[in-house]
Amino acid sequence: MDDLVEFVDEGVLLPLNGGLPSEGNFEKDFLDVLRMVAPGTSLRTALDDLLRARMGALIAFDNGNFETMTEGGFKINAKFSSQKLVELCKMDGAIVLSKDGKQILLANALMIPDPSIHTKETGTRHKAAERTAKQAKTLVIAVSERKNKISIYYGETHHQLEISSEILRRATETLQILEKQKEVLNELVDNLNMSELKRNVTVKDVSGVLQRIEIIKRIVGVVDRYLVELGKEGIIVSMRLKELIGNIYEEEEMILRDYFGANSSALTMLEKMDFDFLLDPLNIPRLLFEELHDKKISPTGWRILHKTNLLDRYVDSLIGNFKSLDNILVARDKDLLEILDNEAMVAFFREEIYSLREKLNLGKRI
Predict the structure, then answer these.
(1) Average pLDDT in the 226-240 region?
(2) What pLDDT is attached to residue 325?
(3) How far is 366 from 363, CA to CA, in rounded Å?
(4) How far is residue 156's CA from residue 153's CA, in Å, rounded to a whole number?
(5) Residue 6 has what pLDDT?
């Protein structure tokens, strides 16, 4: 679990489409930035070429705030290409690109950000990069020929690009953690399924499943971040991630609907929990159920009944009339007959419930 904390603490980030973002949700915007420099993009090709050639570079994206921050240089105003960028970086000074990265505006420019802006960097190029990013609230990339590193500065954030093999290694390790968590979740869901059909569900049963789903969702967020950084080289990781996720989001939605109602704020509460809070098994029962004891509870039945072959209108009618799965399971045939139209449908309903029980008894997933 310590390894899991290390990975999940990096945050939950999801990929976006587009160029240099406008101001908005920072985490999503920064993912957009990472996508611009992911392997397979023209910009990343140029950056990798600069590293191989042991060349330094300072590349800034003009978002309209550069009027007093550049001096000198040559106006280029040419369509961007990786080859042009590499050739222009042979000159001293910064390269200025358009906000969308499609045009090279200036070459050999001197960046003159406010020197009073705090920076943790020591080199002249990296100091200029960090100060420019903070002052102009834009993306600036610094390539170090001495350290052979690519540093990204976006607003107040500094991020160092890593080689794809290292990111792939970390993504693979995270997937292994995800696989273990999914195995635990499957066991917890099987137990919940059996408990619901036996009319013996407790707060602990439901809380355990919700806790594990939220842990998995946070791990998925970390893998999503790696996928953005991997670009086209993350296809295999992406395929495996989709296999592992399966239908956990739908499963969580149905569980919450079963125990808290369709318009509950329970999902919002779960997603706002920080990871340390989520790891304590007592916090979900206390926060969602307002219970610390392992109290017996009953679902409405949406999740289990949707695992049968009953039509949605019958499921809706059963829940609307009986209010809970416990009541549905112990209902008499004559009461079911009023909802399921005929004796054949009542028999079919009984067979479907029996089939679910048998699958669980045989260790099969439903």
Answers:
(1) 93
(2) 96
(3) 9
(4) 7
(5) 39
pTM score above 0.90 = no
Q: What pLDDT, on the 0 to 100 scale, is given for residue 84?
A: 95
Estimate the crossing angle of helix 235-245 against helix 164-197, to 10 degrees.
Answer: 10
Beta bridge partners of 96: 60, 106
Domain ranges in the chain? 37-161, 165-289, 302-361
pLDDT tens sequence across 88-145: 999 989 999 999 899 999 999 999 999 999 998 988 999 999 999 999 999 999 999 8
Neighbours of 11 (CB within 10 A): 12
Question: In one letter, which amino acid is 51?
Answer: L
Task: Spell 200-230 as b/e; 16+ CB within 10 A means b.
Answer: ebbbbbbbbbbbbbbbbbbbbbbbbbbbbbb
Q: Which two tokens stand for residue 32?
A: 């957009």
Q: Select from 1.20.1260.110, 3.40.50.300, 1.20.1250.20, 1.20.1560.10 the CATH code of 165-289.
A: 1.20.1260.110
Tell me the fold of 37-161. YojJ-like (1 (3.40.1700)
For the stretch 246-302, pLDDT in tens is 999 999 999 999 999 988 899 999 999 998 999 998 999 999 998 777 899 999 999
